[in-house]
Design brief:
about 110 residues, alpha+beta, Alpha-Beta Plaits, two-stranded antiparallel sheet, about 25% helix, binds iron/sulfur cluster, binds FE3-S4 cluster, iron, 4 iron, 4 sulfur cluster binding, Ferredoxin
């Protein structure tokens, strides 16, 4: 499955959801999660994300492995999002900030 990683936190551009053929993105307050049981590995969402937050599970960068389990966990409780919406208000600032895992709201 594909995995949303920390670049998404506090940005949430949502360009990714428009292209997903199986609607497996789920929306939280400041992050999206992919349901690994629904993702069909089509790869379409990867190029859509302006901050390159989405990786194949096997390619998730070393420091971001916790996001693999987090996507699976959060996707189970968060609602599905199928339509793109405006990014979060301070997306431009947060797009370049690293180590945002602690800022992820559940
Ligand atoms: Fe959806 Fe395809 Fe991205 Fe998986 S890889 S989340 S199926 S768009
Ligand atoms: Fe997040 Fe990128 Fe989608 S910032 S909401 S993974 S387009």
């Amino acid at each position: 499955a594909y995995v949303v990683t920390e670049a998404c936190v506090k940005c949430k551009y949502t360009d990714c959801v428009d292209v997903c053929p199986v609607d497996c993105f789920h929306e939280g307050p400041n992050f999206l999660a992919i349901d690994p049981d629904e993702c069909i590995d089509c790869t379409l969402c990867v190029a859509e994300c302006p901050v390159e937050a989405i990786y194949a599970e096997d390619d998730v960068p070393a420091g971001q492995k916790p996001f693999i389990a987090l996507n699976a966990e959060l996707a189970k409780t968060w609602p599905v999002i199928i339509q793109r919406k405006d990014p979060l208000p301070e997306h431009a600032h947060w797009a370049t900030v690293q180590d945002k895992l602690d800022l992820l709201e559940k």
